[in-house]
Amino acid sequence: MTTAPTDRAEPIDPDKLRMFTFLVFSKLEGAVTAGMIHLGDRLGLYAELGAIGGFLTSDELAARLGLHPRWVQEWIHNQAAARIVDVRHDADADRYTLGPEAKVVLADENHPAFAMGMFHRLPQTMNSLHVLPESFRTGLGHDYDSHGPDGAVGIERSFEPWSRHHLLATVLPAIDGLPERLAEGARVADIGCGAGGAAIRMASAFPKSQVVGYDISRFALERAADRKSRDSVPNVEFRDPRRDPLPEDASLDLVTAFDCIHDMTHPQEVMGSIRRSLKDDGTWLLVDIKALDTFEETIRKNPMASLMYGISVMSCMSSAMSVSGGAGLGTLGLPESKARRMAAEAGFTRFRRLEIEHSLNAFYEIRP
């Protein structure tokens, strides 16, 4: 039974109207300031502020970078108003600096908290708004290569800082006997390898092991090949699984999948392929976004839920629905309970969540 529409308008509370309008425009403020963060990274403004180690005027900052002072002044006013850059109001001029926490997040690519990767690819992510209306009509999304080469760079910059500090020191040792097995010589596959950072890192640390990275992004594979050549790592190679698929002869000792299963069009089939590739005593290291079982629990416990659902529409879920019949898990679509069920369906019998602290990801040891 449907309810007939009524011509009688509901009364509007003026205070609630003001607060709701403020709420909506606060979202726009965030989007606009995110654009300014992208510019700060791209133009080297954060790097220069971080290198100085003290306060300076916007004119001084502009002069150091050869930029127009009026544009830098307006940019830094946005940053100070948003409380991203610290400001000191001296008698002769306003002066600006980055606090120690801001430095590592905005300017230090070697720190695990560095966060500019997502902002690097912000223009490409937002550009998807031009094509998403058609996706809503047809159901078909767009893969990661639709974001172009800078999309691959942004993903690389997002994950490299933490991986550089923790993959070898924290993650691999969390699985009993794994570093020793890799040191003796193992066959390893990194699924969704992106620009190859994790694969090259493992190959470099364990020269007796053979590591193969798999990805369907041509832009990521190009970056991985360039990096392999630059770093001179002979025991790693990179493949497109559509042309050179994962072996299905139970020959691998380790398979890793970092933040990619939820992006895949057919994740259940991929899990089955992983199972068939592994030796009976092999290991699958699954790393994926921390997710909860229900939407109610998610919005209650995850303060970044709205951001993650939005990114899913523009990126993760779009990729996962980029072919007809795509699973469409999306950014928050693989909670531990679902990962357990899907792994069991693929033929795995053991599933353990690892005790690794990470603000975004959960880590699982999965065995045949």
Number of helices: 16
CATH domain topology of the largest domain: Rossmann fold
Approximate strand percentage: 5-15%
Number of domains: 2
**Largest sheet, strands/sense/barrel:** 7 strands, mixed
Total strand segments = 9
Written as H for each helix and E for each strand, in order along the chain, the element string is HHHHEEHHHHHHEHEHEEHEHHHEE
CATH class of the largest domain: Alpha Beta
Mean pLDDT: 96
CATH architecture of the largest domain: 3-Layer(aba) Sandwich
Key features?
seven-stranded mixed beta sheet, alpha/beta, 368 residues, 16 helices, Rossmann fold
Short description:
This protein is of the alpha/beta class and 368 residues long. The protein is 49% helix and 14% strand.
